[in-house]
């Protein structure tokens, strides 16, 4: 790598660029904090107990209105009293029906395709019954498959079980505003879910505080209305109490956030595409082959460009049931290239003379760690969201929990190995930089200027990366705080800050600015492109670590570099 734009910039221009970047961050924070709604919203619902006269048709709790009252279809709510219902352990003859979205202020609402995704969680509520619990203890003690988790009490005679299994028969139907009838979208029989609760809830007439269970997740919200029918039935062993009610939560993206987010991505897609084209044309103007750092920087720009492409706009017009998996795949490509760039950049700036004409093969161990982590996470995502494109009810944490844990464990170990390699390379780089800085006054002028350029570039990247990483962690922590809300009687009428939206928009702008600045700053300088093949700027820095290479430097090259240094000083 010859002379770069970064080395030829005056301090005034560099300060102006930093000021512009800081302004971009402020604008992106303002957009996310004050102009953008929260990324997601949720609806809490209570399922309707329906008795279906026609078992082959869906139970519709809100079919039409009569005298401002919702009238259902194939959903008789008055067959049994609530007291009679609670006498059975499960609603064996009943269907639980949920119609989404829920009405608000007496008005029927509809989902928008801008909302992107839909995640539905169920929270079954049980009332503890000692007789049923004793049956569960007995069946749990005799079970062979490790189906329940047992703990011995203090006296060593009693088993305590903190979870049990349910089987769910579920039908999911969809409809648009212009449709008259519901269409079955997906259905599943015998869907197994594990309910976990705290053993302290096992008291007479005490409701079990069960953890939410995932019912399904849709990666594309293509229809206006969704109708859920499900029935709960026993697994091989009994539960600890009687089912009293089934509540739940429906989580979806906010359409307003999606629109602003896609506008932001579209703007950065244009900027990164233009910068990448400019950088490639800059390299093509050189009369030499590109080196490894330049090639990996091209890959980094291409990876960010494909990540910025607003592919979510396609789901506004077409149903794409694998959109979340596609986005995960695009993010994974960017992270792989970014981690590879960091390790290669540090390795190429060790200044120890061991990286002459280096290729990717010189970083086999480091890149292998990245590949192992990426492959493990890809397997996990394929097993979760990849299959959900065909079966929205599946979750790997219920079907194959060991595979999920193993994938995450392997990815974590590989990431730790990569981090070890990166920190070791940074340590070596700082050691060699310290040694070279002590020897700079004794070096020949051209060689000294080139080493100073390398050290400057290395420290610039290290500082920029540290700032981006620390800022990402800070914004991530702030996003987990409650949004700042103020009482109506507050002295100051201050607006609400959406920390989660602010974190996403600011981090997106920051990493885009990071890559764009890298491509601009590390592009070859026109001062180093004179069309002469023999110019010293076209000699790789690593080749200058041997004293015998001083003979390659001509007096003309010395004078040219001194002239550039004088011009830079005059600009300052």
TrEMBL record:
Annotated GO CC locations: endoplasmic reticulum membrane; endosome membrane; Golgi membrane; postsynaptic membrane; presynaptic membrane
Protein keywords: Cell projection, Developmental protein, Golgi apparatus, Membrane, Postsynaptic cell membrane, Synapse, Transmembrane, Transmembrane helix, Wnt signaling pathway
GO biological process: intracellular protein transport; Wnt protein secretion; Wnt signaling pathway
Residue ranges of domain Wntless GOLD in the record: 72-129, 163-252
UniProt keyword Amino-acid biosynthesis present: no
Subcellular location: Endoplasmic reticulum membrane; Endosome membrane; Golgi apparatus membrane; Postsynaptic cell membrane
Domain of life assignment: Eukaryota
Pfam family of the protein (one): WLS-like_TM
UniProt domain Wntless-like transmembrane: residue ranges: 254-525
Bilayer topology: Multi-pass membrane protein
Subunit structure: Interacts with wg; in the Golgi. Interacts with Vps35, a component of the retromer complex; wls stability is regulated by Vps35.
Main function: A segment polarity gene required for wingless (wg)-dependent patterning processes, acting in both wg-sending cells and wg-target cells. In non-neuronal cells wls directs wg secretion. The wls traffic loop encompasses the Golgi, the cell surface, an endocytic compartment and a retrograde route leading back to the Golgi, and involves clathrin-mediated endocytosis and the retromer complex (a conserved protein complex consisting of Vps35 and Vps26). In neuronal cells (the larval motorneuron NMJ), the wg signal moves across the synapse via the release of wls-containing exosome-like vesicles.
Protein family according to the UniProt entry: Belongs to the wntless family.
PANTHER family: INTEGRAL MEMBRANE PROTEIN GPR177, PROTEIN WNTLESS HOMOLOG
Protein name per its UniProtKB record: Protein wntless
Protein source organism: Aceria tosichella (wheat curl mite)
